[in-house]
Hints:
- The structure holds two protein chains of two kinds.
- Chain A is mainly alpha-helical.
- Chain A has one domain (2-247).
- Helices cover 76% and strands 0% of the residues of chain A.
- In chain A, helix 7 (130-155) packs antiparallel against helix 11 (206-212).
- The two termini of chain A are 35 Å apart.
- The model of chain A has no long low-confidence stretch (mean pLDDT 93).
- By secondary structure, chain B is α/β, with parallel strands linked by helices.
- Chain B folds into two domains: 6-143, P-loop containing nucleotide triphosphate hydrolases (Rossmann fold, 3-Layer(aba) Sandwich), CATH 3.40.50.300; 169-227, 2-Layer Sandwich (Alpha-Beta Plaits), CATH 3.30.70.
- Chain B contains nine helices and nine strands.
- Chain B has helices spanning 11-14, 34-45, 49-63, 78-90, 108-125, 136-142, 160-167, 208-218, 231-241, and strands spanning 17-21, 96-100, 128-132, 146-150, 153-158, 170-177, 190-195, 198-204, 221-227.
- In chain B, helix 2 packs parallel to helix 4 and helix 3 packs antiparallel against helix 4 (78-90).
- The mean pLDDT of chain B is 87.
- The chains are: A mainly alpha, B alpha/beta.
- Chain A binds chain B through residues 2, 5-6, 9, 13-14, 16-17, 19-20, 83, 85-86, 88-92, 254-255, and chain B through 9, 11, 14-15, 17-19, 21-24, 27-32, 36, 40, 43-46, 100-101, 104.
Amino acid sequence: MRMLRLLAGYVRRYFLEVMAWRSFLVTLVVNQSVTPIIGLAVWSAALPGNTIVTTYYVALLAVQLMTVSYEHHTFSNGIYAGDLSAELLKPQPVVLTTLGVNVALRIWHVLVGLPLIVVAGLVAGVSFDSSPVLLAMPAVALAAALRFLFTYVLALSAFWTERAHGVVGLGETLIFLLGGAAAPITLFPEGIRPLGEALPFRAMLGFPAEIASGSLSEMQVLEGYGWQACWMAALAISAVLVWRSGVRRYTAVGG
Amino acid sequence: MLGHVPWRREPGFLKRIAMIRGSQPIAGPGELTVMDALRFQRLIYEAPEVDFRRNLAELTEMLGIGPLLDRQVRALSLGERMRSGLALSLVYRPRVLFLDEPTIGLDVSAVGMIRRFISDYSTQTGATVLLTSHYMVDVERLCRRIVLIDRGTIRYDGDLEGLSARLSPYKLLKIAVSDGVQPKWERFGELVDVDGDRASLRVHRRDVPAATARLLAELPVADLSVEDPPLESVIDRVYREGVA
């Protein structure tokens, strides 16, 4: 209960902090929206009349904004600058502050990006059914948690290397290629589709959009949730182990 | 420390210590007010509301931060940030306070105010203050016990007088003479500096009484003082030559 109160406090504080970013925030949202919008344009042209793929990419735009993660900026930089020292002295899990920033940023991304989602939906002539959207909600929450954990684990590489931004960038590229942004997993060639479905990248991005666009059967939805649960456990354990190992290497010099 | 192993980060331990960095006294969102930060600090450290109010009232008085409470952190000067940062770190009454360069970049009056506060706070609450500083004046004014650490090894642990005595068995005699005399200063000690009718002599501690008596007997002394060498030179010598 105390942790939830603290998390809510961090979200509130950083929500107010980010409010002052204004134009920079718009830039961030536009940057995150480019890939799904290009995907929408390209795949609409490649598969004219396919309403599922257009619906998928509009949903993907929303999922992208709801799951965006910047832990290489909000956490790795703290390791490099020595700001982690102050966090280590607080009587709370260190990840709580990073999670608070993450949630605050996502709320802002959704708020600022909402007009973009609506316009994209109207231009593409997309309409959503309520039941698939409701079915996708838990998947969005799991995808958000997975992407945070994934980016956080990669950002922890800052304990070992000064190239944590590059490491997280590599992860982002994998999410783009194999998460359903470059191409929907459902359109992958038969031979590699099972691999795409099993990898964690789809669970972080494409899977909720696939559910919302109505492109999955009940069995496929269940399988997808199963994969999300598996990767959640794997990434949570990884985050704990990598943190414990990394924090022992942490040193900070100077004021 | 305090019966705990620091790296275990037990909440009971972390709630009893505080650290302030002089270069960044307040972390977190700069858009919020000092009062917002204080309120959130109460939440993090689970300070009871009654204690929080009482401690805050005391700190507001001691640090003079009343006018700062409703101002945004980003709008504060460095001196104001340091005072607010001290209030943030002390509002939950830690038993051990780590101060890392608390006077860095501050103007003269702010430095004096911070030094007075640290001294008063330590006396009033009995809290232990660990001060890390490159400013030897901070050390001279505030520290009863000095620990010199060089590449992870403790080179000295004791009081300031003991450090001076061990490292520099000499004192500085500063003399001014009248009547335009030109003394042969080398007869009284090692000449460090001479400027007209003023001179500084380096004399071994055990020879100071005799040298002083001779100076007063043989020269028309207008002024005479016996001083320890500057702390900066003593510390510098530790790191260059080690402690004997």
